[in-house]
Specification:
about 130 residues, 6 strands, six-stranded antiparallel sheet, Yope Regulator, Chain: A
Length: about 130
C-alpha cells in the first residue's frame, strides 16, 4: 500500500507532537508508520489514526475514554494488537500528547523488559 502526501504530513505532525516525550522518529511499515523512541516502537499510524502502546498497566486509561484497540484483518480473521487510539485532545495539545506518549513509551519499555535477550553466540568455547 502506497503512502500519500497526506499520510506523510500526518506522520510528521505526530512525530512533532511526540518530541515532548523524547527524540521520536517514524518508519514506514505495512502501509502506515511505526513511531519509535530509543529503538522501541510505542505508537503506530494507520489510516491517519494514531494508536499508542497499551498493556495491563495503562489499558484502563484508554478504555475509560472508549478508545478503540488497533485491529486488522488477517486471512479473514480480525486480529488485535496492543495499541489503542490516542485521544483526540492529544492531537491538538502538546501537554496532553506528552502524557499519553509517556504512558505508551512506558508500556513499550515494560514489554521490552519481558522479552528474553537474543543469544548472539550459541555457545562459548570451553577452555
Amino acid at each position: 500500500m502506497a503512502i500519500n502526501k497526506e499520510q506523510e504530513e500526518f506522520a510528521s505532525h505526530v512525530v512533532d507532537l511526540l518530541q515532548s516525550v523524547g527524540p521520536c522518529y517514524c518508519k514506514r511499515m505495512f502501509g502506515g508508520f511505526g513511531i519509535f523512541l530509543d529503538g522501541l516502537m510505542f505508537g503506530l499510524i494507520a489510516n491517519n489514526d494514531l494508536y499508542l502502546k497499551v498493556d495491563d498497566d495503562n489499558r484502563e486509561d484508554f478504555t475509560a475514554l472508549g478508545l478503540q484497540a488497533f485491529t486488522y484483518n488477517k486471512n479473514g480473521k480480525l486480529m488485535q494488537m496492543s495499541y489503542s487510539q490516542a485521544p483526540e485532545e492529544a492531537m491538538e495539545d502538546l501537554d496532553v500528547m506528552r502524557d499519553w506518549g509517556a504512558k505508551a513509551f512506558a508500556a513499550a519499555l515494560r514489554a521490552a523488559s519481558k522479552k528474553k535477550p537474543k543469544n548472539k553466540s550459541k555457545s562459548k568455547a570451553k577452555k
